Amino acid sequence: MSISVSISVGGRFHAFDLAREMQKRGHLKRLITSYPRFKAREWGLPNDKVESILSHELICRGMGLIAIPASIRRELQFRMHNRFDRLAAKRIPPGTEVFTGWSGMSLNCLLRAKSLGAKTVLERGSAHIRTQNRLLAEGYRRAGYPWAGIHEGGMAREVEEYRLADLIAVPSQFARQTFLDEGVPADKIVVNPYGCDLSVFRPGRKEDKVFRVIHCGQISLQKGAHLLVQAFLELDLPNSELWMIGAPTAEMKDFLGKVHDSRIFIKGPFPQVSLPAYYAQGSVFCLATLQDGFAMVILQALSCGLPVIATRNSGAPDVVEDGKSGFLVDAGNVEALKAKLQLLCENERVRLEMARYARDLRETTGKFRLSWDRYGEAMADAYLTLLQGRCATVQS
Length: 396
Known about the structure:
15% strand, alpha/beta, 396 residues
């Protein structure tokens, strides 16, 4: 059964992957984005299915090049989200049966889609926004850095989006639980873990015997980068290195400026196609995040055959089998992090068995939930279920 799906996103996120999967199944009616059409073509999306609000992207990128106080930047981002939402709402085409919009920038879009008779889905890639704000406030406090907080207007706006949407799509059981804790009905939430490009992320050959810990993604307090650095320094493991792939935030630049250790390498951000070469030189992947709806880097690392140590405040419990393909630890628990790193450093047999388990799962059809095709099929099923007036199935 064909479904007419329109998607709206300021930026890209995983919306282009969702749009590609809908296009493959004959469901995509329109992708509304701030990216130019030629970028969407890289995901196999035809020009006539893409509506570009390029001015939004240009303004946002220009803002990123200017030194702006944090309080002013937060206000500008809030206003830009509102602007994109207003412009995108006007571009939702009649005939749309299911509208999917990104949280924080879809209030007007949801209202417009409902006026067209469409069912509405809100994509939320993190915990409930109130939970996210609490977790980050506590994490920043413990790290000794000020936390400005999420824009109050932005929080209120997003909570209203939660109320309006017929369905809220989240990528992990962790994220789902935060919505339940905030009183959102269970039958309004669908859990669908993201995917990974298996043609890009595959095991490679490690070139040395260094015990190398890999962190990939933004180097920030939210991602627990400071806790990983702390654990690495306190362990002082022999013949070891820490590679941090990504761009440091202002707080982490300050934090790292006080650390002088030649074994810690800040590699900077790279395009996704370059990441497997770095994963290949790792012994273990570690994400000490305080809050992450679903970190796609975990899937990438597993797909490359790396054991994963990650916190439960992420999508890790949905894809990492504790004790088999890696270890799960509580967010903020540096001692647990140290214990698992030390175990893998001192027990090569255990480490290699975990790596082999991750590789075997990657090749086992249906058992390892890595592919975007699986993600797309599950999302299409959720849309169809919504149209038929039934509760969406929660994916595990």
